[in-house]
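Per reviewer request, we include the raw input and output of the structure prediction for the construct analysed in the revised manuscript.
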Amino acid sequence: MTVAPSSLHISSDFDSGNIQVLEASDPLNVKLAIKPDSKSQHFQWFHFKASGLTPGQTHTFCLTNASQSSYNKAWDGYNAVASYDHERWFRVPTRFEGTSLNITLNAEHREVWFAYFEPYSRVRHDQLIKDAQQWSGCELLAVGQSAEGRNIELLRKGTGAAHKHKIWIIAQQHPGEHMAEWFMEGILKRLEQGSDPQLRKLLDFADLYLIPNMNPDGAFHGHLRTNANGQDLNRAWQNPCSQVSPEVFFALEQMKKHGVDLFLDIHGDEEIPYVFTAGCEGNPGYTPRLAALEARFRDDLKARTQDFQTTHGYTRDEPGQANMTLACNSVGEHFDCLSLTLEMPFKDNNDAPNPRTGWDGQRSMQLGKDVLSSLSAMVKELR
């Protein structure tokens, strides 16, 4: 017996939601488009809910403007994530066909959520900040304000003693890169483990300064790259403006106040299916000391986890050719410290693929925990 498909409803009016409905009269073949960031032409992030599915039927959702997205070469080899409960996410068959991205689902329930990556919600963020103070022993050191007035919390694990190294880790400058805050949750979860000997060594010699989400406005609005003013925050570090990029202005002012001995900027990469780091080798002030610290970090992390490698990544800058508007380069130059951008994939880690989940929140969290081990191993060498 053939089951007639029911009417379908598409919604994205929620935290990090992003989709435009073009044609939904045929519930088995829905035409959609990704909306650009407000005040910017960037787009790639999508997050929407489909209600009225017919269990047992195959539904196709066509993102018709995928070929015009910011990273249109990134769709090859990519599979979207889906969830029936907005908590447990899995990959679904996804095909890029010239101009459109076609997501296919053999429906098991009447409603489902789709997203570019496993979303990290503002509700979860708020709970993370509370738990960091209650269970991880962190101090809410300062609170900045985004362009739209959302809180940007700076947490510190440590006392601020003068002899301690200052390790800074910030995340989600690019709001669509939700794996970055999952990474930060991994760090904060490990900080709950007071008996961890590696952690005790790290905290004997360093304080941690943590900003779990640099771009709450962009994340809430379902942006890919920019804040509410249309500013790419990771292109605003050379001379940040308190009106256009107050998020960066706040972070940099706090860095100048407390000092920086190591800086990690946590991101996600649309195209490259590996975890990797990018350094500041193009900076005018780049030295053999910094090069040795970079190698030390990379070699240690590579030895600890199959989810990190040093073969694939970005092309290295030539000496003196760094883009000084990037956080990694600007902070590394200003504070003469080891400074790295850490990138995780939107796709999967091809060195250790998981066809069901691809790269996901749990793997991002584990990487955050592993990075603390590498920092512990080299903390005495930072200066």
